[in-house]
Write a structure and sequence with these properties.
heterodimer, A: 110 residues, mainly beta, Immunoglobulin-like, six-stranded mixed sheet, five-stranded antiparallel sheet, 11 strands, B: 116 residues, seven-stranded mixed sheet, four-stranded antiparallel sheet, 0% helix, globular
Chain lengths: 110, 116
């Protein structure tokens, strides 16, 4: 069964601190995507990771992919309020479609 | 360039009524998808299409039908709506999946559907 699990499901972050969220998946794949969703809005693409060891960075967010461990991490550096949103990872199991995790809701507090 | 658009944005149906949701994209994408999003469950794929005239079932296809008569449009139909179909529906499109560095799915704004 194709499964994508994210943890934690909810993360309360203090401004200025660093955090990591995790995305585990059940079957071999070297294609993983991260999306952001603001409340009541659509999904916005953040990162596309297409090989083992891939690392992408955009501002305070950095995503990496370890295909051997079937694990992707999304690292947040010095959290700021603007990063409050729900983050989804999604995996392409070579089937022309994505399987999404249940999402991690990030809330940044002062 | 409007990207992915969805019609309507909101709809309230009574049990047993039918309706069609329209998704349109102007990016010349081959692949199109319909998802539903429910609290605590992420996005679940209903149906998808890898090209004009082709459709395939996703994870939760029961109670829905789709058609892709034109490359730029993907229609989702509910023949007899049920309260369990109350959800937010997202359409997405992409060139292909994973074959190019820029490949990703682009999402529409969503349709909020309530079935009473």
């Amino acid at each position: 069964e194709l499964k994508v699990e994210q943890n934690p499901l909810f993360l309360s972050m203090q401004e200025g601190k660093n955090y990591t969220i995790y995305c585990n998946y059940s079957t071999t794949s070297d294609r993983l995507y991260w999306y952001r969703q603001d409340p009541g809005k659509s999904l916005e693409s953040l990162f596309v990771l297409l090989s083992n060891g891939a690392v992408k960075q955009e501002g305070r967010l950095m995503a990496s992919l370890d295909t051997k461990a079937r694990l992707s991490t999304l690292h947040i550096t010095a959290a700021v309020h603007d990063l409050s949103a729900t983050y989804f990872c999604a995996v392409d199991f070579l089937s022309s479609k994505l399987t999404f995790g249940t999402g991690t809701r990030l809330q940044v507090t002062l | 360039n409007a990207g992915v658009t969805q019609t309507p944005k909101f709809r309230v149906l009574k049990t047993g009524q039918s309706m069609t949701l329209l998704c349109a994209q102007d990016m010349n994408h081959e692949y199109m998808y319909w998802y539903r999003q429910d609290p605590g469950m992420g996005l679940r794929l209903i149906h998808y299409s890898v090209g004009e005239g082709t459709t395939a079932k996703g994870e939760v296809p029961d109670g829905y039908n789709v058609s892709r008569l034109k490359k730029q449009n993907f229609l989702l139909g509910l023949e007899s709506a049920a309260p369990s179909q109350t959800s937010v529906y997202f359409c997405a499109s992409s060139y292909t999946m994973g074959h190019q560095l820029t490949d990703t799915q682009y999402f529409g704004p969503g349709t909020r559907l309530t079935v009473l």
